[in-house]
Amino acid sequence: MIGFLARRLLELAGTLAVASFLVFGAVYLAPGRPETFLLGGRGASPQLLAAIRSQYHLDDPFLVQYGRWLGDVLTGRFGESVQYRSSVLGLVGSRLPTTVTLIGMSLVLVLVFGIALGWLGAVRGGAADSGVLVGTSLALGTPSFVAGVVMQSYLAIRLHWFPDQGSGTGFADLLYHLVLPSIALSLYWIGMLARVTRTAMLDVLGQEHVTVARGRGVPERQVLRRHVFRNALGPIVTTAGLIVTGLVISTVLVEAVFTLNGVGAFLEKSVTVKDFPVVQAVALLIVAVFVLVNLVVDLLYPFIDPRVALGAREGDA
Q1: Distance separating alpha carbons of residues 120 and 211, to the nearest angstrom
Q2: Which InterPro entries does this entry report, sorted A to Z (predicted)?
């Protein structure tokens, strides 16, 4: 256990190091320069442009800029935002609660409805299964931002059941403002998890140990819970891990649709104005979430299936 964690933490550090270089390099090579935003599109003399580049160290060589930025990251600083002239860490931190709450609400919807629909389709069959397949096909074919625009137009603007934009004030008001965004964000992933749950449970339902349990008179509810669903948890948990990272990425579009004061909308705006320090910090944060979620899934596997040793999924067992 300790050896596995030590190895995975080293892998995490290596992945983040490579990702930091790639993220910084991609932003560095992107078209457009932040000094253009600082000037507001106005013309400037070469002397003024040189002064701005010097002030923000934009004229330093690539490796020098990367080394300075990496040193700031390792010491808990992520530089200063070009557009706000303020600490990137503070700006991202102030928007993080909205995004975390949105992802949390969406994840609850995905897990509850995705697993319930998959279970229903696998166990009931017939018309129920057909309904699940049709419903999940519609969900998988509807991008999050499209679902957001439709719900915003009809449920918020036309019927006035929910706020159409903004994050509200206070936690209770934030939850109210996030109802539509969380539904829009979760629809696609509900369809995906329902399909995976249905397929995994159907595979287990046909196995011999399920037939034996039923032949011994074990109640059907207990058969489904202990012998079918538990043995189908492997692909379900793996997919749930992928869904968490997918939700993190999808928040960018959904937050933009509902003008939420979250990290996703902040990233979208920062890309538009070439606010490189913000883009680099948020991109690195997303990579860290990817790696950590994968680590959590690996740690859960031995509890789901005791036959699987830690690290076996990577070919060690």
Answers
A1: 19
A2: BPD_transp_1_N (IPR045621), MetI-like (IPR000515), MetI-like_sf (IPR035906)
